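Backbone-to-sequence.
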């Protein structure tokens, strides 16, 4: 069931054993200067102290639950069932709003959008575990071009605001996806409509090294991406497919030779030098 509050912005955070980073995420939401906001946290049954953090912050959280779930998108859907905002965004426990004015600045744009615009987005800063900047993601939407490719390349999920009517029209996240269900959801809307890009606002910081950027997950990302494209009669450009598959196999090879930690360090260096976006997104 969906509720409605025209000025409320809901932030849904999903977490599993994220005690090391969750407090920073919570603080970044609580400290937002925009007053009409709510925080919903869905925990997958953590055993590392996450629940203690949730209890300690319970007065700042509109709703939270800790119980086993069936994955990221099942957790997102649980959060959706509780969200009351007109606009909804989704974060992981190691993501955080870039500064305390993000929602206030975003709201100035969101309030002016026509009801036909159901997806708005800004930029996301990729950071390493020490908080150092790696690269900035998020580019303006092009009116013409491959729509699915633009979702993959231009729209980091942590920088997307979803209007409530998006879910009323297209339903919830498809829980058969493990990593790329956010792209599939957006494709339902954006294969025939345009999103709104909000320039000059870094919405969140996203820590590199989440599940979808792990070398072992790269092939799953590609399989799910192809599946989503097939579901919606989209064709991925051959060049993209070949490059992504090559990168996935190179990651796996390097992981076996030098280890995962060194692989991530090399990817960070490569991202800084080439100013590219890492393949895959943390959710």
């Amino acid at each position: 069931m969906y509720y409605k509050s025209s000025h409320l912005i809901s932030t849904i955070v999903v977490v599993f054993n994220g005690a090391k980073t969750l407090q920073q995420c919570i603080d970044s939401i609580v400290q937002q200067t925009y007053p009409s906001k709510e925080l919903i946290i869905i925990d997958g049954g953590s055993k590392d102290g996450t629940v203690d953090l949730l209890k300690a912050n319970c007065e700042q959280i509109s709703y939270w639950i800790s119980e086993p779930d069936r994955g990221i998108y099942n957790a997102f859907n649980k959060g959706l069932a509780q969200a009351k905002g007109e606009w909804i965004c989704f974060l992981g426990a190691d993501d955080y709003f870039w500064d305390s004015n993000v929602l206030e600045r975003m709201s100035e744009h969101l309030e002016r959008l026509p009801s036909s615009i159901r997806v708005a987005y800004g930029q996301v800063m990729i950071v390493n575990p020490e908080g150092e900047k790696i690269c900035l993601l998020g580019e303006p939407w092009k009116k013409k071009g491959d729509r699915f490719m633009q979702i993959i390349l231009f729209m980091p999920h942590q920088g997307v605001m979803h209007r409530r009517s998006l879910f009323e029209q297209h339903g919830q996240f498809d829980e058969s996806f493990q990593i790329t269900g956010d792209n599939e959801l957006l494709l339902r809307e954006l294969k025939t409509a345009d999103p709104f890009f909000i320039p000059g606002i870094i919405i969140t910081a996203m820590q590199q090294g989440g599940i979808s950027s792990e070398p072992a997950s790269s092939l799953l990302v590609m399989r799910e991406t192809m599946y989503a494209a097939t579901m919606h009669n989209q064709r991925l450009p051959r060049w993209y497919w070949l490059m992504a598959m090559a990168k996935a196999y190179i990651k796996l090879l390097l992981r076996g030779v030098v280890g995962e930690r060194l692989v991530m360090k090399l990817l960070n260096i490569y991202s800084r030098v080439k100013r590219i976006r890492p393949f895959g997104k943390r959710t």
